TrEMBL record:
Annotated InterPro entries: 6-phosphogluconolactonase_DevB, 6PGL, Glc/Gal-6P_isomerase, NagB/RpiA_transferase-like
Swiss-Prot/TrEMBL keywords: Hydrolase
Statement: the UniProt record of this protein carries the keyword Transport: no
Recorded GO MF terms: 6-phosphogluconolactonase activity
Similarity-based family: Belongs to the glucosamine/galactosamine-6-phosphate isomerase family. 6-phosphogluconolactonase subfamily.
Name recorded for this polypeptide: 6-phosphogluconolactonase
Stretch forming the signal peptide: none
Cited Pfam families: Glucosamine_iso
Species of origin: Aliishimia ponticola
The keyword Hydrolase belongs to this UniProt entry's keyword annotation: yes
Pathway the protein acts in: Carbohydrate degradation; pentose phosphate pathway; D-ribulose 5-phosphate from D-glucose 6-phosphate (oxidative stage): step 2/3
Organism placement in taxonomy: Bacteria, Pseudomonadati, Pseudomonadota, Alphaproteobacteria, Rhodobacterales
Gene field: pgl
Amino acid sequence: MNIIEYPDRELLAMDVADKLASDLENRLVQGDSASFAVPGGTTPGPIFDVLSSIRRLDWSRVTVMLTDERWVPEDHARSNTALVRARLLTDAAQMARFLPFYGEGAIGKTVPRLGEDVSPVLPISVLLLGMGDDMHTASLFPGAPGVHAALAPDAPVLNIVEPEDQPEQRVTLAAHVLNGALSKHLVIFGAAKREALERAQKLPPEQAPIRAVMQDLTVHWAE
Ligand SMILES: O=C1O[C@H](COP(=O)(O)O)[C@@H](O)[C@H](O)[C@H]1O
């Protein structure tokens, strides 16, 4: 794990957006297409704002997906898809293809079908992760029903997790899918998350799911 510290969040957003675009460009030099998995939540919006206007990247060859989704329709205030559509898939980046992790119908039937669309674009070319103070990443929440299965090496691509302290069911990429990304970045802000990341290094993934994706991870931090 390599930690880069920034003087402020604005500089972090500009630098991380540039790094992600460069990683995607490098993948496109080696192949016809690239896949890009991004988090939802409160952290990535400013990075998306910068990234969406980067024109040197051939976005038409990029498939964007989330690391995880809250099981709510796109017009819901907590939808991660809504965030991605509003802040990332605009401007130059609107040419990218998007794979949603929410669909109509029962979650148990819909999620395996959505996972079938993800398999052909694996391994993830470039991964951006967020993390909560509780050391969850994507929707791999410590001790939540479903997380044990999602951490298993043979987990399906997409998993259902039902954290008791969250208002909705979650859909998350499996830990092995996240960990298998060719380029991996984590963005965190503030002292509490920095301390949580330090703590996570001494805990098993069931208690600190971020631990499952730490190998070759570049962490970007600002106060
Ligand atoms: O619920 C979620 O939480 C994490 C962290 O979110 P943040 O608001 O603390 O940045 C996020 O990475 C994940 O995608 C999201 O669904």
